[in-house]
C-alpha cells in the first residue's frame, strides 16, 4: 500500500521503542508530536516536523492539556501509547506504592491519553490508537504479576474500546512485544523489589535473574519491531493484536494451548451451570 503522510502523537520518545518510532516516523516524511518527561529529545528532524512536549502520564491535568495542544495544531492520525516501565516482584513482596505506581504509569497513563484524545478522534471520524502492551499482557511469568496486571488491563480496555469506536472510523491495535534489545531491562526502565521470602527464589527470583542475564542480549531488533508496527498500521485491515518476536509468539501459542486444554477438560462442568428451565428451553440450544 502506498505511504500516505501522517501526523503522529507518541508518548515516551526519549529511548527504546519510542525513540525508534520517532526515527522511522520522521524518516518517512511524517510529522511527529512526541512526549518525554523532560520535554526534550536528542532527535534530529527537519524544521517543523518534530514537536516535543513535556508530559508525565500520571498527571491527568497535564495529559488533557498536552493532548489538547497536540490536536490544536491539526488532525492526528495515530496515537501511540508507548511510555511505561517494568516491575519485577513476587505478588507477596510488592508494596502498595509500587503496585499503585506501576498501574498508574502502565494502565492509567494510556487510559488518560485515550480519554483525552477520543473527543478529537470522534470529531475527525478517523484515527488509530496503538497501545504498546507486552507479551506479559498475554502470558504472565512468575515475578511479573503487577506489571502483567497493568498490561492485561490495557489489553481488556483496548478490546472493549475497539468495539466502541469501530463505527466511528477509529481503529485500535495492541502491540505485544517479546524481548527487544532496548534499555527496558536496565535500572532506568525495570524496577526489581528485594525478595523478602526465600520461598520465591526459584520462581519470581529466577525470573528476575534471567532478565538480568538477558539485558543487552535480547533477541528482538527494535528497528524491525517498529517497522512491523508501521506495516500493520498501514495495512488495509490492521490487527487488534500484533504479537512481535518469536519468543512472544511461542509464549502466546503455549498460553492458547493451555487455555484450550482447560476449556475442553472442564467444558461439561461449565456447560451445566444454567438454571434447569433455561437448559431445557429450546431457545437455549440456539
Automatic annotation (TrEMBL):
<dbReference type="InterPro" id="IPR002347">
    <property type="entry name" value="SDR_fam"/>
</dbReference>
<dbReference type="GO" id="GO:0016491">
    <property type="term" value="F:oxidoreductase activity"/>
</dbReference>
<protein>
    <recommendedName>
        <fullName>Ketoreductase domain-containing protein</fullName>
    </recommendedName>
</protein>
<keyword id="KW-0560">Oxidoreductase</keyword>
<comment type="similarity">
    <text>Belongs to the short-chain dehydrogenases/reductases (SDR) family.</text>
</comment>
<feature type="domain" description="Ketoreductase">
    <location>
        <begin position="6"/>
        <end position="178"/>
    </location>
</feature>
<dbReference type="InterPro" id="IPR057326">
    <property type="entry name" value="KR_dom"/>
</dbReference>
<dbReference type="Pfam" id="PF00106">
    <property type="entry name" value="adh_short"/>
</dbReference>
<dbReference type="InterPro" id="IPR051911">
    <property type="entry name" value="SDR_oxidoreductase"/>
</dbReference>
<dbReference type="InterPro" id="IPR020904">
    <property type="entry name" value="Sc_DH/Rdtase_CS"/>
</dbReference>
<dbReference type="InterPro" id="IPR036291">
    <property type="entry name" value="NAD(P)-bd_dom_sf"/>
</dbReference>
Amino acid at each position: 500500500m502506498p505511504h500516505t503522510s501522517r501526523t503522529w502523537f507518541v508518548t515516551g520518545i526519549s529511548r527504546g521503542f519510542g525513540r525508534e518510532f520517532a526515527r522511522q516516523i520522521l524518516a518517512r516524511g511524517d510529522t511527529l508530536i512526541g512526549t518525554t518527561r523532560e520535554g526534550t529529545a536528542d532527535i534530529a528532524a527537519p524544521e517543523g516536523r518534530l514537536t516535543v512536549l513535556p508530559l508525565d502520564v500520571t498527571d491527568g491535568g497535564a495529559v488533557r492539556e498536552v493532548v489538547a495542544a497536540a490536536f490544536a495544531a491539526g488532525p492526528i492520525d495515530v496515537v501511540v501509547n508507548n511510555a511505561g516501565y517494568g516491575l519485577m516482584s513476587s505478588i507477596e513482596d510488592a508494596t502498595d506504592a509500587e503496585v499503585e505506581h506501576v498501574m498508574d504509569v502502565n494502565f492509567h497513563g494510556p487510559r488518560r491519553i485515550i480519554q483525552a484524545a477520543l473527543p478529537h478522534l470522534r470529531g475527525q471520524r478517523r484515527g488509530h490508537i496503538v497501545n504498546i502492551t507486552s507479551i506479559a499482557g498475554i502470558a504472565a511469568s512468575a515475578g511479573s504479576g503487577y506489571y502483567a496486571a497493568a498490561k492485561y488491563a490495557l489489553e481488556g480496555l483496548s478490546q472493549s474500546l475497539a468495539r466502541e469506536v469501530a463505527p466511528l472510523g477509529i481503529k485500535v491495535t495492541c502491540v505485544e512485544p517479546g524481548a527487544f534489545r532496548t534499555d527496558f531491562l536496565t535500572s532506568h526502565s525495570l524496577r526489581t523489589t528485594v525478595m523478602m521470602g526465600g520461598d520465591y527464589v526459584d520462581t519470581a527470583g529466577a525470573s528476575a535473574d534471567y532478565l538480568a542475564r538477558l539485558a543487552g542480549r535480547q533477541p528482538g531488533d527494535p528497528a524491525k519491531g517498529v517497522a512491523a508496527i508501521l506495516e500493520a498500521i498501514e495495512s488495509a485491515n490492521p490487527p487488534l493484536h500484533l504479537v512481535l518476536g518469536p519468543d512472544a509468539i511461542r509464549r502466546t501459542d503455549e498460553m492458547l494451548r493451555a487455555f484450550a486444554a482447560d476449556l475442553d477438560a472442564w467444558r461439561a462442568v461449565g456447560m451445566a451451570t444454567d438454571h434447569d428451565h433455561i437448559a431445557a428451553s429450546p431457545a437455549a440450544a440456539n
